[in-house]
């Protein structure tokens, strides 16, 4: 078994990872994979100091030629300075013949760094010989975690089946301190039992049935969707045990000298009248002087911000640095601001959202992002994500909605949950006119008015893409059609109202022609359905679908001098618990007008709802 400790703030990079092993897969299931983890036995002994030692024996079986290649080299990740790994024994078994690996041939290599930051993740590579289809490769290893984040407390995550089917696995965890755990096992693949004898607490995890063949993609993404089972282990008796040391460290960094660049932002922010204007201004200005780039080569850099002057010196930082800077500036402006840890994930990923907060064992492994929390009053709170680069103090970005949050403030003793609905009003209105120029091209003219998150998403895309690329992308967003040449007219930045999320655009572009003429000279229109309506039919039933924040989108498209005899055939009505969609096509001697109104009532379609026979109702 490979063991993972999920890292806070490092985009879920791994220190040491537990991929678990699981029991005998069914023949049909095994045939879908290249190899399986045939068996595994793991013992984790936690010390009173929060360090722990893991001893593991894992056997992999090759099911085809690709699997044979894959298991000929096995990797064990670790992070120097935090954990160490030692291979005790390694051998292959083919047709009863055992071939031992010379442990001097085990090599250490570095994992490649990702484009979002630096890491010092290393790996041991174990080579095996005489591996054939049907062979087993087996190794025993010992992993020692020598530097806990919080002294005296151990917490780590066990993730099962994220890369291959796992057949038979038993994990035993022992400690002199009580072991807390949280189980995320939607398909009931695990058996978890706890006991205490002679002052020793014990948790035993077994695979009750085989794990599934994992889907392609990052294994940790499967965790956020609930696609693989996971168990979080912690010896913390309360959230205060974690908050107290973390908040003390953050506060010491927050109190460091504030650089001139931050003081300049404070001074200019004070020129704005309202709190929302000031906060949104700070967010925008921070993105101009700090580029997102993480440095996670040590535990200190993984979990704590650099400090105010260091961020300015290097001009870059990750979410901890952005949130620390935002918190420091807002405090200087007189706000009650604190850094908070949250789960950032697509809204349909419900693993950590649809749980009772009181059921979660105290651990930082739930969180992968840092933001700024502002308490304006007993009933008015703000959840700000400065890494977005676009101020949105009046609302909450969708990837944060319903997330559990740990506010790093002295005295905090429990988790809180972010609102499940964005409080900002949300709507868009599009008016456009289409004139045919040729069989392939048409001229599109019109305007867009948006409020709430519809406007903020446009503003954020302009910030992320830059004005030039944004101008090229905007017609596609507005028209839902290919654009052959671009002459879109954008308003100045001031049209993005910083006191309220608003955006207004006018456009005049050449795009594809939706007007078709057949051999009988009869005209017809190709009119796409709103993408959110299409999502109702395209979801896979595994992780659900996020349709967007509640909104009303009204679109009126005028086709001058285009007459449709059977205009009523273009009418369309969709009624569902999630959204209503209405399209009416009216045509006369002046032309054809298509009016569409999409009212989004619920943001998320759950996997359970998709599998229901009554999913969707179309009138």
Commentary on this structure:
- This protein has 619 residues and is an alpha+beta fold.
- 20% of the residues lie in helices and 36% in strands.
- An 8-stranded mixed sheet has the order 7-6-11-4-3-13-16-15. An 8-stranded mixed sheet has the order 28-29-27-26-33-36-35-34. Strands 23-22-21-24-25 form a 5-stranded antiparallel sheet, covered by helices on one side.
- Helix 10 packs across helix 11.
- The longest helix is centred in the middle third of the chain and has 15 residues.
- The two termini are 53 Å apart.
- The N terminus is likely disordered.
Number of strands: 37
Computed Rg: 28 Å
N-C termini distance: 53 Å
Low-confidence runs of at least 5 consecutive residues: 1-31, 217-221, 482-499
* Mean of residue pLDDT values: 82
- Assembly category: single chain
Q: How can the largest sheet be summarized?
A: 8 strands, mixed
Report the principal-axis shape: globular
| Structure annotation, total helices | 13
**Given the helix and strand composition, which structural class is it?**
alpha+beta
Strands of the widest sheet, in order across it, are: 7-6-11-4-3-13-16-15
Indicate the percent of residues in helices: 10-25%
Short description:
This protein has 619 residues and is of the alpha+beta class. Helix content is 20%, strand content 36%.
Quickly list its features.
single chain; 619 residues; alpha+beta; eight-stranded mixed β-sheet; 13 helices; 37 strands; 36% strand
Explain the layout of strands and helices.
Layout: E1 3-6, E2 14-18, H1 27-30, E3 35-46, E4 52-62, H2 65-71, E5 73-78, E6 83-94, E7 97-100, E8 107-110, E9 117-119, E10 122-127, E11 136-145, E12 155-159, E13 169-175, E14 180-184, E15 190-197, E16 200-207, H3 219-225, E17 230-234, H4 240-254, H5 260-269, H6 275-289, E18 291-292, E19 294-296, H7 299-303, H8 308-314, E20 316-317, H9 319-332, E21 337-342, E22 369-375, E23 381-384, E24 404-407, E25 416-417, E26 427-436, E27 441-451, H10 453-465, H11 467-479, E28 483-485, E29 502-512, E30 515-517, E31 523-525, H12 531-538, E32 545-546, E33 551-560, E34 572-575, E35 579-588, E36 591-600, E37 604-605, H13 607-611
Parallel strand pairs: 3-13, 9-19, 18-20, 26-33
Antiparallel strand pairs: 1-2, 3-4, 4-11, 5-10, 6-7, 6-11, 8-10, 12-17, 13-16, 14-17, 15-16, 21-22, 21-24, 22-23, 24-25, 26-27, 27-29, 28-29, 30-31, 32-37, 33-36, 34-35, 35-36
